[in-house]
């Protein structure tokens, strides 16, 4: 179907700016605040500058193909081109608008499947056993709340936002459990002196709300620092440490330890990898990590080594 096929009797969707505004108002009833802000940013920065005044019903597959090509080559503030991940977010938003328009029985010409976005494969940074032992030794020796926080992540795999929002009331030392039910994010806000604010929110997914068993070694580390009603990272009921500050502290500690640079999220990757190496039950590991499905855990962390592949191949000799 192309632009010429549309007759005057068919119901067009209206300007993209109008469609997106109506969709956001509807989506705000069910989506998390952080998700709405993300979609607002994508619309403002990428979609509306190109399609804002265009009728949504007039966007074709070729328009979308050219749009993605332009984003890949010159997208972004510095005109250096957007990453495949960001382009995927843009196309996902376009598809959500498309679904909204279709539910209203209005005309849609394009299908997002017309574009193929090739993702770069990035190796997951996992600390070696040597690096992890070196880091843990340093953190135990320091024994301050920042070090305690990093140890929590190394021993439980929780995310940096979950750590920053964690309070001692969420930690039950007698039952050796830790409840994860909040996350901390810095979000963009409009109409205020500051452009961003730190907020403590419910996790995006219900699967992220979970109770994690705490290993005995971690209980011994946590017990001396327990402070009722306080944030774990500060020992204060009001003051907190936001994720980007924790990220910077983590990188400085790695530098001090002489460990190759890594993002804080590497603590989560390392925890999951160690668990796989120890033959953890994958279903249990998936729930501890707060993944929505075992498939995510398997695809991300279960990668057999060459040694294991060779051992499996050698089993063939038993057949002959």
β-sheet strand percentage: 5-15%
Query: What is the tally of beta strands?
Result: 5
Q: What is the CATH class name of the largest domain?
A: Mainly Alpha
Q: What is the overall shape?
A: globular
Order of helices and strands: HHHHHHHEEEEEHHHHHH
* Helix fraction bin: 40-55%
Q: What do we call the CATH homologous superfamily of the largest domain? A: Intergrase catalytic core
- Strand adjacency order, main sheet: 1-2-5
Number of helices: 13
Determine the N-to-C terminus distance. 60 Å
What is the alpha-carbon Rg in Å? 24 Å
The averaged pLDDT comes out at: 90
Total number of domains: 2
User: How does the major sheet shape up?
Assistant: 3 strands, antiparallel
Low-pLDDT residue spans: 1-9
CATH topology of the largest domain: hpI Integrase, Chain A
Q: Would you tell me the structural class of the helices and strands?
A: mainly alpha
Q: Please identify, by name, the CATH architecture of the largest domain.
A: Orthogonal Bundle
Oligomer: single chain
